[in-house]
Amino acid sequence: MIRVFDVLSSSLLLIILSPFLLYRAISAYRQSQSIFVSEPKLGQLKQPFKRWAFAGAGYGKQLPVLANVLRGDLAWAGTRALSMEEADLLTPDVAQAFFALKPGVVSAYGIKKTVGLAYDDEFATDTEFFSGVRLKNYIGLCLRGLIGALLGGGKARPTPPVLHFWGVDIVNTTMAEALDWIEQRVLAKHKAMVAFVNPGCLNIAYTHQEYRQVLQNVERVLPDGIGLNIGCRLLNQALLANVNGTDLFPRLCERAALGAYPLFLLGGQAGVAELAAKAMQQRYPGLLIAGVQDGFFSDAQESQVIDTINNSGAALLLVGFGVPKQELWLAKHREQLQPTVCMGIGGLFDYYSGRIPRAPVWLREIGLEWSWRLMQEPGRMWRRYLIGNPLFLYRVWLQRQQGTNL
Fold first, then answer.
1. Contact 106, 138 (CB under 8 A)
2. For residue 195, what are the β-bridge partners?
3. 232 contacts 164 by C-beta, under 8 angstroms
4. Which of 118, 252, 298, 404 has the fewest C-beta atoms under 10 angstroms from its C-beta?
5. Which structural domain range is residue 92 located in?
6. Are 287 and 253 in contact (CB under 8 A)?
């Protein structure tokens, strides 16, 4: 059925787009005295083929790939088509599993990469998705690939090591690099504070001087959310990855379990941090949870809470009070707190405790996780998203127009 879908859809598109394809072919010939260019690739079972494109520059350059889909060289969605040089770098086991599948115009890993969610190995991601994929999942991935192409903006952009939004420096990094940095700090016992920022956080920092100063002084600020991806595009820059705390948390727990360094979870409603801790310990049996504490304690109890954290022996402290309260609290008590790395993580305990369901993966892959959160808590979230997101983009536009980082 997947092959039937590919043939019918590519044939229909060739017919519908035939006037433009003719125009694009004439334009290519006028530019370079050639209509097509080709790139050698390896298909299913390592069968060689040529991936076609129009010669010259201009819109629709990749449209001749319709012929590759119609011929069966490519599917609409599949593993990434590799060159011979790339294939030679694969281990025999990986190559056997990878080339058992047909390559596609879009891949599961490529779609995740477009929105900054490609945290895991490319070949494992694609092999897992396309092994026995059903038609509805296949069509869904094709549609997400179309949306991802629109989100990607259609051109390569520079990826500076640091992103600047009105005085806040955000490290433009990958999930793996962020985890490495945190782990190195823990192992070296070099104290550090980590903050995550999304458009809502940056909107607060725009007017909240104390919070902005905290973000300017912490050791590392990490990028969170599709809004930053779009903001970077407005500044003609590229975000390497959406390094949000919710996706980082289980990966951090996995590393903590392997490295045997304990965590302390602070925040959320009564019992929520404890449920999140149990869920992670079931997932990673070696994980050490030094302690848990809800976020509803009085000023009189604060010193006792800090003593409990310090006496627990935790190497990592995760605080979920919400922004900017968690960052202000950590900055105020950083000298007293003994855990090596402290970070504010927002409401992620709610997700891993099961109190609030997280958006489906497909919704996250098209950059609409915020709409799910809005549906879950409309009374609390409408202002942040319906007013805050456009306001953030307007402020980024102003920054671009002014040519300043203020």
1. no
2. 221
3. no
4. 298
5. 2-152
6. yes
The two tokens of residue 89 are: 């770098």
Q: 209 CB contacts (<8 Å, ≥6 apart)?
A: none
Sign of CA dihedral 144, 146, 119, 318: negative
Same domain, 85 and 26: yes
Assess whether 116 and 21 both reside in one domain. Answer: yes
Q: pTM of the full predicted structure?
A: 0.87
Same domain? 135 vs 173: no
Distance, CA of 318 to CA of 341 (rounded, Å): 9
Phi and psi at residue 89, to the nearest 5°: -85, -10
Structure tokens at 232: 């970077």
- Over the chain (406 residues), what is each successive 10-residue block's mean pLDDT? 94 95 94 93 95 91 94 94 93 92 93 88 91 90 81 73 94 96 96 96 96 97 91 91 95 96 96 96 96 94 96 97 96 96 95 91 85 89 92 93 65
State the DSSP H helix or E strand holding residue 233, giving kind and residue range, or none if neither: helix 226-234
What gap in Å lies between CA 9 and CA 11, rounded to an integer?
5
Q: What is the DSSP string of 73-94?
A: S-EEE-EEPBPHHHHHTS-HHH
Q: State whether 110 and 181 are in the same domain.
A: no
| Residue whose pair of structure tokens reads 């050639």 in the numeric block | 34
